[in-house]
Amino acid sequence: MPDGGVVVISIPLAPYRCPPGPYERACQIAHYLKTRKPKSKLIVLDANPQVTSKGPLFTRVWKEDYAGIIDYQANMAVAEVDVKGRRFIPSIGDAVKGDVLNLIPPQRAGDIARDAGLVTANNRWCEVDWVSTESIKVKNVHVLGDATLSAPLMPKSGHIANQHGKAAAAAIVELMNGRAPVPPMMANTCYSFIDDRNAVHVASVHRWVPEKKTMEVVAGASGVSGQDRSQWALEGLYAWSWAQTVWADMLA
After folding, report:
1. In angstroms, rounded to a whole number, what is the distance separating the alpha carbons of residues 155 and 190?
2. pLDDT in tens, 132-166
3. Which of 103, 130, 161 is the last residue of a domain?
4. Domain total for the chain?
5. Predicted TM-score (pTM) of this structure
6. Element (H or E) spanning 171, and its range?
7. Which residues contact 150 (CB under 8 A, 6 or more apart)?
8. Which residue, of 26, 41, 157, 208, has the greatest Cβ tally within 10 A?
9. How far is the CA of 65 from the CAs of 2, 58, 61, 132, 216, in angstroms?
10. Are residues 244 and 122 part of one domain?
């Protein structure tokens, strides 16, 4: 793309995988444009009414670091893509043309889940028993990560998927030995880089609530990065440490 070109990102209505992910991507593209192609522009078409995660942090960064580069537009759901014309056509409003288009489509559980009859909610997601992550519809089948109908305020994040896997494995061991699974406790941390070294985070802890038969956020156990930018470089180091730890945990 020549300097002076336009990149356009589309963000679907939530829920989708990694709530802050598209906004982190916007920061990374904007950082590249600022340092390599400063005459260029990034248009973000968000189907949601506002930034879905870390809103005050992302919007501050866009204003302070990427003013004149990022053009954020809420309530702009993309209904059609004109590939030849390089245009996103929203459900309401005029078509938006770019030199580079990045479509993030509406999301659902994968075909394997749908074909297996596991999809139960909104023709998109799989409801599970959170004590065991077992499908509520197909016995002895456990569903993890993005494919699940999330518990209240539980993001479709990589960290949570890692926690789902551990909860499922523990539950399967108990069930295979004729014992009842132990209700899990799950933690989540999502780091987002705003440039090449600074990051911000959101974190939460989720516990099983028997009377509601779901997981809920533990009061006082959630948090988000503060507005003190002097701490964000340290959070960038934490983010790399988290990544290396979770990769080793899952892939070693």
Report:
1. 9
2. 999 999 999 999 999 999 999 999 999 999 999 99
3. 103
4. 2
5. 0.94
6. helix 158-176
7. 15, 125, 156
8. 26
9. 22, 10, 5, 44, 36
10. yes
